[in-house]
Please model this.
Amino acid sequence: MKHIRLIATDELRLMTRNRVAIIAVGLFVLLTIVAVLSAWSHQRANAELRARHQHQAEHAFDAQPDRHPHRVVHYGHFIFRPLGPLAAFDPGVDAFTGSSMFLEGHRQNTANFGDVRQSSMLIRFWQLTPAFVLQVVAPLLLIFLGFGAVARETERGTIRLLMLQGVSGAQIAGGKLLALGAVAILAGAPAMIGFLAIAGQPGALMLPIAAIALGYAAYLALWVVMIVLVSTLVRRSRDALLVLIASWAVTVVLLPRLAPDVATAAIPLQNRLQTDVAIARDLRRMGDSHNPDDPHFAAFKADVLKRYGVERVEELPVNYKGLLALEGERLTAGLFDLYADQNHDAQQRQNKMVRAIGVVSPAIALRSLSMAAAGTDFAGHRRFLEQAEDYRYALVQRLNRMQAQGVSYGDDTATDPDADRRKRVAASNWGEIPDFAYRPPGGRALAAGAVPGVIVILAWLIIAALLLSRRASRLGVVRPGAAR
Model:
């Protein structure tokens, strides 16, 4: 250990004498602080904005006057997706998927108003967040500081002198790892401290916080090992720098951008227009409640009359039009769920393909585990959509029951001048409808989603460490033809 500490100390002393290295580390720490503060400010502003809009939407819905319940069905309601406490660290797909939904009867809408559609095109590449700094910039900093860790000794011939003094190749590699690892800790510490400050360390989220910390620590450790490994494999510092920059460009920039395109080409999705046309076609096949000769609704009418023991809909104790609305919404909601599940399953297969490509790109694996633990991945977006649809269906069916039970069939079909007033229900009914409450996942579920990514990165780290260990044992060995 003495030799390892001496080599590490000497390497760190060499870095501190390099003015460019000091400036680079200082700028990186400054960038990290800016990323933490901007991400925290952006999340807080977004959370306050969505909460305010949600309150306004609820107030507008409750403030409606006396109305026919079916008019309220078409009046609709807005809901907004709340942000979790870890979204400031890694916003994930939130900027692309949208933050609000309009809920109405007979239709299942998608989320709208994503930041990508309201901001410059630069947001499509990256957002300045702590996750971005650690995923993209930190490896680049480590490369420029450590590319010549061992190759420099080989170029100068000092590695043979060290070995003549009794220092082994493993000790040389260990000292270089220790020095570069200290830099990695210095680089990652501000982001992780800011992460803990942003999260507020809530007890329920300790598992996902630990998963994120472990994933990023392993990711930076992997780059430290890879940099030293490459530096041992080449004889010139310049060659090590070129190899490492190329590796960074492919694994951190190219593959994460190429993988979604490959998945989209392999598993295409129907666009919104195609889905709407398919749903309209299936709805025509299922039945038309406005057609008295429609087989499905004719059978439904006969069943209702039989159930209540009457011969005409006018004799029913409830409003038959309300019952039709209940049945129609049940059919359309089932169809909407079917197509939504098909679309979600296709997107899930796309994500699995991207994660499979992540086996050759630790950056993809890291992004997957980071978003999963933060609750900002596709699974989190799908969770919001499903809860929103459950709320929409319950809301519309509650209004349809109001029509069935609170409005008489005679008034509902009347055309006299006073009929519109008689078919309205009291405005106090709107305030009795529960507001939308998003149910976030628990810490265990978030941490479980991060496990595959953690496994991939740890596997990379173990393989790289084994390769470095094997290569370090051969340091200083002159290969045939290498001597001059």
Q: What stands out?
A: The radius of gyration is 31 Å. The longest strand covers residues 77-80. The CA atoms of residues 148 and 237 lie 5 Å apart.
